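idk why but the lab printer keeps eating my pages so im just putting this in chat instead. protein + S-adenosylmethionine:
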Amino acid sequence: MNRFFTSQTLQANRAVALEASIQKHAISVLRLREGDQIELVGPDAQPYLATILSSAPLHVQIDTPIARPTELPVQVRLICGVPKGDKADLIVQKATELGAATISFFNSQWATAKWAPNRVAKKLSRLQAIAQGAAEQSHRCVVPAVDVVTLNEMTKLQADAKLIAYEESAKAGETAGLVKAIATRPHTLIAVFGPEGGLSPAEVSTLQDAGFLPVGLGPRILRTETAPLYLLSAVSVLSELQGEKNE
Ligand code: SAM
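predcted complex ->
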């Protein structure tokens, strides 16, 4: 069933008019009709089943709340060195599917790609739209925020666990940091990733001084767009999957 995010406040057994953007997608693109059901998520992140009452303008009846949780138990903020080409699109789409709470980018020292300040607003608007589409597709209850940060701002961030995915740690055989961090059952986790050229020792040192822990993500060196997706998958396995309950 198709899920949409609305800015309208939702309440069971009430009728509500939806935005023109949802009408366009639901009626013109997906060809949904009166009587069809959709899923709606309002500003409080609670999803509801809803039934289409009329298509133009789009009015729906809010039915029952949907109880199935879809958010990661750990609020993960990814902070990625700006990658080349359109890899930021891929990171945002896939990281949203995998449950990221926030996806940030930073102009890192060894990146060949940099985002000029005058182009950031346009890039973020495009990436935010990609996040919304991916959140709807993956039945998230929250659309991750997409933003940019500086290294200085990163040093002031607070979280229960603060990690640097560091290729040099992986090469040195570090394998415990991520697993140990998730074992502490953090509510919030920040993970920093380098671009294609990796993180500079100066960046790693600055982040370590601010309480970030360098960790390896296994013995293979992953592409810049693969590493954040690996981390989110690992967080899901370590915090959401419980094999013995299913056996
Ligand atoms: N140029 C670097 C090198 O040759 O060693 C590789 C950089 S890698 C393509 C890009 C980023 O992904 C790294 O800076 C790091 O944040 C992350 N990364 C990739 N593989 C990793 C691993 N096995 N452990 C930790 N981080 C990794």
